[in-house]
Amino acid sequence: MRILLWYWGRRGGGAQFTLGLAQALARRPGVTLSLSISRQGELLDGFRELSVSTDIVDTYRDLRGFATGLLRLPALTRRLQRSAAAADVVISGMTHVWTPLVAPALARAGRAFVPVVHDAAPHPGDFGWAWDWRLGRELDAARAAIALSDQVADALARRRPALPLIRMRLPALLAPAPRQDALAAPPAGSLRLLFFGRFRRYKGLDLLRDAFRLLHQAHPGVTLRVVGEGDAEACAPGLGALPGVRLEQRWVAEAEIPALLAAADAVVLPYREASQSGIVPQALAMGVPVVAMPVGGLTEQLRAGGLLAAAVTPAALAAALARLTDPAELARLRAEAREAGQAEADWDGQAEALLAGLARIAR
């Protein structure tokens, strides 16, 4: 099968997912892989290391570059069409701001376009202007769609009942870092918690703030490290001023992420809504338990290796986190996470699931 993997984004989970998928597909016998990626992408060197045909296009880095890039978009569209002519299918690793403008041209040229749909609806509180238009354009151009959780698959089935769906699981996006304290438990009542990711309203930083206040009152030895890009004060006023909280408002480079997770006893995801989370498989692959709210795709991802709060409330989240202050419970969850994490690192298995789905559609 000849596959053109297309991703013009620059950084973050979409770039990591596309690179992981490219590496897995490049290893599969019977697959001829080619790439169309952005010269401005932060993982460009990783794509270049693959021994596959790669078309590197100029996109943009900033608002000014975006404006001038629009002038090049017709030429870039024709360029992608030429690359697609040698492929059986074009897979979009993650939507990009230009994807809905380019994908219809692939369909008009008779090319099989299959997008990976990470989210089927805007997250609560996110800027949702033109969301339906964007997703609708992509699905109208699609021969099939790839979903990474049952929640997204169900939403797509309701929106486009006749569109074939391929179900993949989201694997760990990065190679795990070794844990220096893998066999050592923190003292009773002590716990190093980590929240990591972009600061967005739907991620429930205010719920985490209130839950940690309750937790810290009962267990003063617990600490919370909050690391990510965005305005934490706008999402959760007063979070950084709480005793035991270390707030780091910054973009985290990919190379730092495994060590950041390895330094934590547990990762906390206080999300109000989630299609799925790339942090869950990454943490589990490193033997780090995850505590999350019982929402969306998180309930699918955390069948082992972590805890789901009983409800989407600060008190329920605090109660779930308090269980980890028991060294025996933390040790049990670490063991579960290590076992579950073996499957989370299986990119080859997910590539095989993708190829089987594509073969069904071709038949």
Class derived from helix and strand content: alpha/beta
Domain unit count: 2
How many beta strands in the DSSP annotation?
13
* Low-pLDDT windows of residues: none
Portion in strands = 15-25%
Fill in the keyword field for this structure.
6-stranded parallel β-sheet, 7-stranded parallel β-sheet, 363 residues, Rossmann fold, alpha/beta, 14 helices, 2 domains, globular, single chain
Can you walk through the features of this model?
The protein is α/β, with parallel strands linked by helices. The chain has two domains: 2-171 and 346-362, Rossmann fold (3-Layer(aba) Sandwich), CATH 3.40.50; 191-344, 3-Layer(aba) Sandwich (Rossmann fold), CATH 3.40.50. The chain has 14 helices and 13 strands. The strands form two sheets. A seven-stranded parallel sheet has the order 3-2-1-4-5-6-7, sandwiched between helices. A six-stranded parallel sheet has the order 10-9-8-11-12-13, sandwiched between helices. α10 links the parallel β11 and β12 (290-292). α4 (99-108) runs parallel beside α5 (131-141) and α7 packs across α12 (314-323). The longest helix is centred in the N-terminal third of the chain and has 22 residues, at 63-84. The relative contact order is 0.12. The model has no long low-confidence stretch (mean pLDDT 89).
